[in-house]
Amino acid sequence: MFSLPMLPRFRLACPYCYETFPEWRIGFRCSGRPGPSGDRCEPESDPLLESRFGITGDRPHTFRDGRHRYHSVCPVSKAKTNTRVCPICHSTLPVYFGRMRSQLIALVGARDSGKTVFMTVFMHEFQYRLGDRLGAAIPGADDNTRSIFSRDYEQRLYEGRSLPDPTFTVEAERQGYRPPMVFRFMRQIRSRLPGRTKQTLLSFFDTAGEDLITTASTELNIRYLEAADAIILILDPLQMKGGRQLAASEALQQEPRPEDDPYSVLQRITEMLKAGHRDRPVRKPLGVVFTKLDALWHKFPEGSPLKRPESDGAGCDERDSLDVHHHVQALLHDWDGPQIDQYLKYNFRCFRYFGVSALGAIPTPDKRVSTVISPYRVGDPILWLLSKAHMVPVIRRR
Amino acid sequence: MIQGGGGNRGEDSQRLDRGAAAISEDASCVGQWHVDRLCAESGPSVTPAEARIALERQGVRVAELPRLPTQPPSAIAQYPDFAPLVASLGRKLSIELIFDTTMPHGFRLLTGLRLDDGRRLDREAIEEAQRQTPEDADHYDQHRVLSMLADAAQQPQALDDIVFWEVVEYLRSLARLEYPQRAIAEQAVRLSLERSEAEVVAAAVAEEHKIRESPAPAPISDTKPSFPATDHPTSPDLRDQPRPPVSRPVRPQPPQPVTDLQVRPMRGRTDVVQLSWNPPPAGTVWLRMALTPPPWQVGSIIAASEADSYGRPLSADGVPGPDRRMSREVTVPEAQAFVTALTVRDSDATVGGYVEITRGAPVRGLSALRFGEEIRLTWTWPAGAISARVAWQPSAAPEDQPGSSAGRQQRSCTRRRYQDEGGFSAMMGYQAQRIAVWAVIGGPGEEYVTAPAEIEVPAIGKPVRYDLLPVRGLVGRARRVRQRELCLSAEQRCVLPDLIVVECRHPTVPLSPHDKETVTKIRGRAMDPGTPLRIPIPLAEHGPSWVKCFVDPAGPAAARGRVTLIDPPVKRLWVR
Fold this sequence. Notes:
The structure holds two protein chains of two kinds.
Chain A: E1 12-13, E2 20-21, E3 27-29, E4 44-45, H1 47-53, E5 58-59, E6 62-64, E7 72-73, E8 80-81, E9 83-85, E10 101-109, H2 115-134, E11 136-137, H3 143-159, H4 170-173, E12 181-188, E13 197-206, H5 215-227, E14 230-235, H6 241-246, H7 262-274, E15 286-290, E16 316-317, H8 318-336, H9 339-347, E17 351-355, H10 380-388, E18 394-395
Parallel strand pairs in A: 10-13, 10-14, 14-15, 15-17, 16-18
Antiparallel strand pairs in A: 1-2, 3-6, 3-9, 4-5, 7-8, 11-12, 12-13
Helix pairs in contact in A: 2-3, 5-7, 7-9
Chain B: H1 6-26, E1 29-30, H2 32-42, H3 48-57, E2 61-62, H4 74-77, H5 82-88, H6 95-99, E3 107-108, E4 114-115, H7 123-132, H8 140-152, H9 158-176, H10 181-190, H11 195-213, E5 262-266, E6 269-277, E7 284-290, E8 301-303, H12 304-307, E9 312-314, E10 319-320, E11 326-331, E12 337-345, E13 348-357, E14 364-371, E15 374-380, E16 385-394, E17 409-414, H13 415-421, E18 424-427, E19 433-441, E20 448-449, E21 453-457, E22 462-470, H14 474-479, E23 483-490, E24 494-496, E25 499-504, E26 518-522, E27 525-527, E28 533-538, E29 545-551, H15 557-560, E30 563-566, H16 570-573, E31 574-575
Parallel strand pairs in B: 1-2, 22-30
Antiparallel strand pairs in B: 3-4, 5-6, 6-11, 7-9, 7-12, 8-13, 10-11, 12-13, 14-15, 15-18, 16-17, 16-19, 19-20, 19-21, 22-23, 23-28, 24-27, 25-26, 25-29, 29-31
Helix pairs in contact in B: 1-2, 1-3, 2-3, 7-8, 9-10, 9-11, 10-11
């Protein structure tokens, strides 16, 4: 997993459109400032940004410079610029893009399974608890993420105590663009050389559950899933017959929809991942996360791995993670029979089950959180994926 | 029926006038029961029509009194916390929450609820009130009451019944405190009930109370009254009320103490708290505030003069609330203080309970979630709180040593940290814990703590770890015998219940034992820490299989919860 930062990379994936391209195709956007001769580029509309994401408005033009990697000079105004853009979608790339690894993580799952809440709570947890535990930081990698995550996700959930609205479908994105959230993960590592860090860009693309219902709408997500380095599949045990029978009654506020059946969702995602490839197990690590454990806690016996205190180690606790994996696997057989487990075994080379509660309590019928958000094990899935990418250590205990 | 002569009739007439005058001192409106009683007391020659005329001559209206409800309306009967919530919000009637005021323009009840200003109490009005109420933790109770009313509004007449019930319950509590009927009527008017209706409802309440409390009227002569007093009850609900005997032996008994004195915060106010208590059947309640708890035990009987030496008096003229409790607002003192209730009758005072009053409302909604040894607490902060102090102590601390600090631990938690870290968590162990949380309010230099909120978290079984180890020794290894040794170890001295070890070939780790899978049963026994128990487990000849230990579900239920079995790493449960 070591890379030589000075060599150009042949396959980079844009954290916004998830298209891949070699590093030398990265473009630049003119800064719009006057050059040495006083010439200035006039802003103009960007049809690529508009057609892909529906982002309108004038901005300075883009250009390609195969000789420079991090900064360039506008061929028109001669002004210096260090704003790099994706050659495919013209999104402004994070400052560190290409200089460090990128982990594109796709969050998929049915409607109302809790994808957005999971991502929001994970980020918040990382900032306030996990980061300290791991010796890591995870700031937003671009202005968009910094402002949108704080305003639309974190404040709404933590201060407004209100669950997010259903995520835009990809179609709807064209009117109300909701870009992937891009964060920069940095962790201090032990080394003789001071200041050595491991860094990666984490891009979370939060798919709308509706996008996974029909084959037509899923086509739009195939690109994201193909480019993703890892996948987090969020499943709602309350959509399963066995899970509903055991759940606290106040958690059963709506009837399960046949199209959101977890097994169907898993099949659709697998087909998207395998489309156009040979029929062999998918190699991307898959975290299968069962959310809303708070509705089922009362049924877990004392001593269950899902009623243990969370691990406080500075990494991914392998023993604890395996205990949870096997326990959730057994619960899954109870809730929904062996079909999901068997399907995963045949179609994924590397997958692991997780059980989390992002809110720590059952929300009210009007989708509000009546008390403080008190998550449980919400960091486990992403820590496992990061350990697979060698970004966090694996803790092995006897 | 014996008819009196002319001389008797004159005396009867005088008695009638005196009786009517006496009634008029207390009441402005009465029902048929008073008329009948007046007839009976005045003499056999007095007819109800004459009694009615005599009462009206004294300015007392004789009206048909409404039937009073004896049970809460079905729409709120399912919410036992309805009345306490309304009381905690500082309201006497729940509709005040809908119109966000104390009904300035009055209302009528007896022919259905009507507001004099033309507004309507219906589902739209409730929904509008819900929209106007801020959606934050401080208004949670208000939202809850409004939701209950919104639910009730789906049934016809339910809101009318709720308001009538609240008015009647409020007036009943006044009657129990021996308020005169006119005072009860005045209190009804203060609720904004239209005056003539207030008098009628007050009359019904007072009459109900008198029927319950007073003995049957004694005959004034050796002649019996023309009809018994119970022939014309006011309300069918009261028809079956047992009548007290005419004369009761009076046995002097000490006044009963107030044991349920409570303090609760007032919504949106930090300078005032509300004290509430159930009035004792007899005696007067005194409240005394002091800087220290009272020196007497609850239930002690002391001389009333002795109570004067303790703190300063608070007037105890509380107002009854819809939850039938007396309540009184108290300005919170600058320093911590204690208020004690004393029940005084004649020269004796019985010491009741006391409450601690400190500035600021305590935390609300304290709840706990246990993850093994770790307990996670969540609560709702009072306004202005900057941090909290959390103290916990094993519940098994000796009860005969109040204030014993054995095993007590305390930590602080800032509000910022609480919000960001999702509550307060601490390793508190497996035993039951008594946990108290105080909010700290104020800025630097002038911090003060609120009264504590407390919760008891039950224990879970003492942890017993087990492991499945390969059999030691050369023989086992050489023969490649598929055998394991169950090694049980306890961290604390405990009594192990009956255990079973199961072996199965399920695709997943077994979560519970099933028939025909048990390979070994282990009888319960005492275990000491540091002395592990080693038991060989014979397994099937061929593997692999899951091997797992469970508490025997066939064992006694009480024994099953004594320990919590902690599994080894899951890969050791899979035996090849």
